[in-house]
Every structure is written in C-alpha cells, then in structure tokens.
Amino acid sequence: MSNTVEPDRRTAAAPDRPHAGHVTLINSFVVPEGRDEAFVALWTQASRYFREQPGFLSLRLHRALSPDAAYRFVNVAEWVSHQAFAAAHRTAQFKELIARPAWREFASNPVLYEVTTQHAVAGAQT
Amino acid sequence: MSNTVEPDRRTAAAPDRPHAGHVTLINSFVVPEGRDEAFVALWTQASRYFREQPGFLSLRLHRALSPDAAYRFVNVAEWVSHQAFAAAHRTAQFKELIARPAWREFASNPVLYEVTTQHAVAGAQT
C-alpha cells in the first residue's frame, strides 16, 4: 500500500489471513502546508459517518508537531473486526463522501493492524 | 523525517513551536518478510527501557494485517510531554540500546504528534 488519492483505494486492504478480534486502522494523510483547516473540515465529515457505523469503537486524529513529517495527520481508529471495518467502506454513503473532489488534495495511506503488545502506567488515560 | 537506520536519528524531531501537554510518538518500522520475531525481540528490549522512564504513559505495538504494508510494525506511545520524551532519548542507556548492530536491519520513522480529536463509543476500551 502506498499514498493514494483514488477514491477506490481509500480503504485498507483486507487481512491476508483469517483474523478474529479488534483491528486498528492507521491512516496517514499528506496535508500541504497551510491546509490543515481544509483537511480537518473534510476529515471531520467522513469521521461523523464512521462513528455511526456498527463496529466502530474509537478514533484519534493526530497532528504532527514538527514540520518535516511526511504525514501531517494520522488517524488511529479501532473497530471490533475487519469485517465491520470493511462493511462501513462498502456503503453508497461512504462512496459519496470519498468521491468529493476536495479529497484529491490530500493523499492517504490506510493500513489495518492488530495490537500485539500494550502497556500503560497505572492511571494513564489511554 | 524519513526512514532511517542511523542511531543518531532514531528519535523524533522536537516540536517546532511551544507545546504543552501529552505527546504521541508514532514510530513506523520496516521489517523484512520472515523477520517479525527478530524485530519484536529487539524492540521489546528497547520498550522495557522506555516503560521505566519518567513521563512514559503507554504504548501499543501494532502489526500489519496485510503483506503489502510499507511498515509492518507501528509503535504508538504516549508521553506526558515532549520534554520527558526527549530526556528518555538522551541517556547513555538509550544510546547503547539503539547502537546495537541488529537495528540496522529495521529502518524506522519516528514522528511526534498531538491528539487533536478523539471519540469512543461508550464502554470501548481504548
């Protein structure tokens, strides 16, 4: 998977092996300097859609703190399963959202992951 | 920031503007096919060090579910501040850990972010 502006490729590839349990989307966005506000407005519309879909668990949008980051924004989102994630990307509403011409300015690189290790200090809100 | 195997560049750039509050490291690793086990063993040694440092909050190691992912592993780690994060990367112990020749096989791309938006469904463990 590499950066894309093609609507048909704006979703992560399916797992190449059977996978049960939660999945995490890490979707990295190329956002030109000075275009943060336009990107966030567009992304927020899409995120409202995803938050209403069955199987959505959480998301966090991250903004880079240094200007040399290849990806200025990264969305990390959890879903109950890769099937639920895929179903949310098959609807007519998703296709309409992602076909908007404004998206062509912001290439993305969506990849599905599983969490293999996690640790937190006591009391950390993670 | 781009992929690196240089020990001196194995930490994220500092913020280019004043920043108070939590920061999130997103560190993406290139891991050749068949080398997951060697990578995880090496990464686990480093993660043990970081988990003991002041200001460490949490980490999650993610493994890609599809083989075409440019980065097979991604570590997402929270720290109380970019200063605490930087301090943990200035110690002799960190420099020793990251200078190990085994790391040269696994290029990484560490970038610091701030969370700008988050949502979770009720009851989701995030």
Set down the secondary structure blueprint.
2 copies of one chain form a homodimer.
Chain A: E1 23-29, H1 36-51, E2 56-64, E3 73-79, H2 82-88, H3 92-98, E4 108-120
Antiparallel strand pairs in A: 1-3, 1-4, 2-3
Task: Say what oligomer this is.
Answer: homodimer
Strand content of chain A: 25-35%
Radius of gyration of chain A equals: 15 Å
Helicity of chain A, in percent? 10-25%
Low-confidence stretches of chain A: none
| First and last CA, distance of chain A | 28 Å
Descriptive report:
- Two copies of one chain form a homodimer.
- Chain A is an alpha+beta fold and 126 residues long.
- The first copy, chain A, has three helices and four strands; from the N terminus they run E-H-E-E-H-H-E.
- Chain A has helices spanning 36-51, 82-88, 92-98; strands at 23-29, 56-64, 73-79, 108-120.
- In chain A, strands 2-3-1-4 form a four-stranded antiparallel β-sheet.
- In chain A, a hairpin with an 8-residue loop joins strand 2 and strand 3 (73-79).
- The interface between A and B is large, with 50 and 50 residues.
Brief sketch in words of this structure:
Chain A has 126 residues and is an alpha+beta fold. Chain A is built from three helices and four strands. Chains A and B meet through strand 1, helix 1, strand 2, strand 3 and strand 4 of A and strand 1, helix 1, strand 2, strand 3 and strand 4 of B.
